[in-house]
Amino acid sequence: MGQGSTPIYVWLALEIAYLCKCRTVEVTFEDRGNDRRRYLTQAQELEEGLRIVRAKGSRTNIVKWSPRLRRAIDIAKQFRSERYKSLNIPTPIAPEDCPLIVNDSGRPLTASALRSAFGRIRKRAVEKGILSESESFTLHWMKHTGVTNSPSSRIEKAEEAGHKSVQQNADYDHAEAIVRAIE
User: Fold this and answer.
1) Do 16 and 109 contact (CB within 8 A), yes or no?
2) Does 90 map to a domain?
3) Which of 15, 23, 58, 172 is deepest in the core (most CB within 10 A)?
4) Adjacent-strand bridge partners of 36
5) How far apart are CA 147 and CA 181, in angstroms?
6) 132 within a domain of the structure (yes/no)
7) Per-residue DSSP letters for 64-126?
């Protein structure tokens, strides 16, 4: 990877978070003793789609495969395989122990590592004038943007994002409603 380039695992996490309308923590792998939050593992890759284990009381759901989502997961698995092979890391046998996204050293991508890498990228973009301070955004905006850009109805958007109500989803959907004029 060249000086100043974005690590592929950051792109993968952002792409999957956007496509699945989820928090970035939901695409990471956390394992802190008894606090085992393994959100995105090989076990979540199902025939019908990607099972997203939601955080903060949102409903877990399965996001149907689209060509773009399938491609992102395939790239993540290829990158993981290459990292494991080049670093001589054994692939975990149990699917629930095998993260879909790993970092450059082949370790599972954690939420704190993702935040740190993203912070460096965002800072560099502001320093180089690619983004202004006011244009700068957080990782969580991937969920907001995914919900807003979805062509689905507001009720469907709530379900897609794992929200328990349309009202909960209203904080995430920034699209303007298109309404009919009186005839």
Assistant:
1) no
2) yes
3) 23
4) 31
5) 25
6) yes
7) EP-HHHHHHHHHHHHHHHHHHHHTTPPPPSSGGGSBS-B-TTSPBPPHHHHHHHHHHHHHHHH
Residue type, 108: P
In a domain, 14, yes or no: yes
Which helix (H) or strand (E) segment holds residue 142: the answer is: helix 141-149
List pLDDT tens digits, range 167-177.
Answer: 766 666 677 76
Query: pLDDT of 128-144, one tens digit each?
Result: 888 888 776 777 767 66
Q: What are phi and psi of 150, to 5 degrees?
A: -65, 135
Q: How many domains, the chain?
A: 1
Query: Which two three-digit tokens encode residue 146?
Result: 């995914």
- Residue 170 confidence (pLDDT): 67
Specify if 164 maps to a domain.
no
Residue-number span of the structural domain to which 59 is assigned: 8-137
